[in-house]
C-alpha cells in the first residue's frame, strides 16, 4: 500500500491489487490516468528487491501531485479492482 498526503487530501493505491504485487499490470489498464483530468497520477517503473533493476516487468501508479486532486472520484469509479481510495 502506498499512501500519499497533500493538504487535507489522502490518496491510497493498493499495490496488492495493482502493481508489482497485484494481478493487474497498470500499463494494461491506465483507466485512472485517462479518467483523471488533473496531473495527479504518475505511471512509473519500480525496482523490486532481488530482481534485475533493468527488468521492465514492474510498474506502478503513484499519486504524485495530490494538490491537483479535485476529489471528483472518477478514478475510483473506473478502477476495476478497487485499488484506489481518496479521502480528506
Ligand atoms: S478524485 Fe478525481 S481529480 Fe482526484 S485523483 Fe481521482 S480522478 Fe483525479
Ligand atoms: S484504474 Fe486501478 S487497476 Fe487501473 S491502473 Fe489505475 S489503479 Fe491500476
Layout of helices and strands:
Elements: E1 2-6, E2 9-13, H1 31-35, E3 41-45, E4 59-63, H2 74-78, E5 84-87
Antiparallel strand pairs: 1-2, 2-5, 3-4
One iron/sulfur cluster is lined by residues 13, 18, 24, 26, 29-32, 61, 78-81, 83-84.
Name the descriptors.
alpha+beta, 88 residues, single chain, 3-stranded antiparallel β-sheet, binds iron/sulfur cluster, 5 strands, Alpha-Beta Plaits, two-stranded antiparallel ribbon
Task: Please explain how this structure is put together.
With 88 residues, the protein is α+β, with helices and mostly antiparallel strands. It has one domain (2-87): Alpha-Beta Plaits (2-Layer Sandwich), CATH 3.30.70. 11% of the residues lie in helices and 27% in strands. The protein has helices at 31-35, 74-78; strands at residues 2-6, 9-13, 41-45, 59-63, 84-87. The strands form 2 sheets. The protein has a 3-stranded antiparallel sheet, with no helix packed on it. Strands 3-4 form a two-stranded antiparallel ribbon. Strand 1 (2-6) and strand 2 (9-13) form a beta hairpin. The longest helix is centred in the middle third of the chain and has 5 residues, at 31-35. The mean pLDDT is 88. It binds iron/sulfur cluster (2 copies). One iron/sulfur cluster binds next to helix 2.
